[in-house]
Amino acid sequence: MRYLIFSILLIFQLSATEYYISAASTAGSPDGLTKATAWPTIQAAWTALDGVIQPVDIVNIYAGDYDIASPLNMPGSGNSTFRILFRAMEPGVKIFRSTDDLEPIFNLTLFWEFRGITIVKSNPLPYSTSSDNGIWDEIDDSIVFGCTISNRT
């Protein structure tokens, strides 16, 4: 009986909701639940996901240039068992800052995972807990995998 309850809880927790961001989106009322209704900007997604996103959820981002005007605080947190995944669905995802200050693009909360995204920022350092990088992970519990953090050209 204990194993049955554990299995049911595990299946419940592994039910990820996938969300979509596409710079090419022309959806009149985007809800981010499909590519056809994707949010056109990361800022729009973060506003909609604030307080909604859960551990194990996935944010898929399609190719395009995404200009972040000011640092983005993550809209939620994963946990030590299940992270929130932010991943490129195809090559060509470039996130950059149009301003030239030392603030990061993303201020991470707990347990996020970034995959396959290019972060372009003036004078970045390699990924670390320093705030002058493109990604700032103050607690150092998130994963950045297959991403590029580079100087603006």
Structure description:
The protein is α/β, with parallel strands linked by helices and 153 residues long. Helix content is 13%, strand content 27%. It is built from two helices and twelve strands. The strands form three sheets. Strands 1-2-5-8-11 form a five-stranded parallel β-sheet, with no helix packed on it. Strand 1, helix 2 and strand 2 form a beta-alpha-beta unit. The protein starts with a helix and ends with a strand.
Taking the alpha carbons of the first and last residues, their distance comes to 60 Å
Class based on secondary structure composition and strand pairing: alpha/beta
Number of helices: 2
> In total, how many beta strands?
12
Helix content: 10-25%
Strand order of the largest sheet: 1-2-5-8-11
**Global shape:** globular
Q: Please indicate the percent range of residues in DSSP E strands (runs of 2 or more).
A: 25-35%
Q: What is the CA-atom radius of gyration, in angstroms?
A: 16 Å
Biggest sheet overview? 5 strands, parallel
Q: SSE order, as H and E? A: HEHEEEEEEEEEEE
Mean pLDDT: 79
* Poorly predicted spans: 124-132
Q: Assembly state here?
A: single chain
Secondary structure: elements and pairs:
Layout: H1 2-13, E1 18-21, H2 42-49, E2 58-61, E3 64-68, E4 72-73, E5 84-88, E6 93-97, E7 106-107, E8 112-115, E9 118-120, E10 135-136, E11 143-145, E12 148-150
Parallel strand pairs: 1-2, 2-5, 3-6, 4-7, 5-8, 6-9, 7-10, 8-11, 9-12
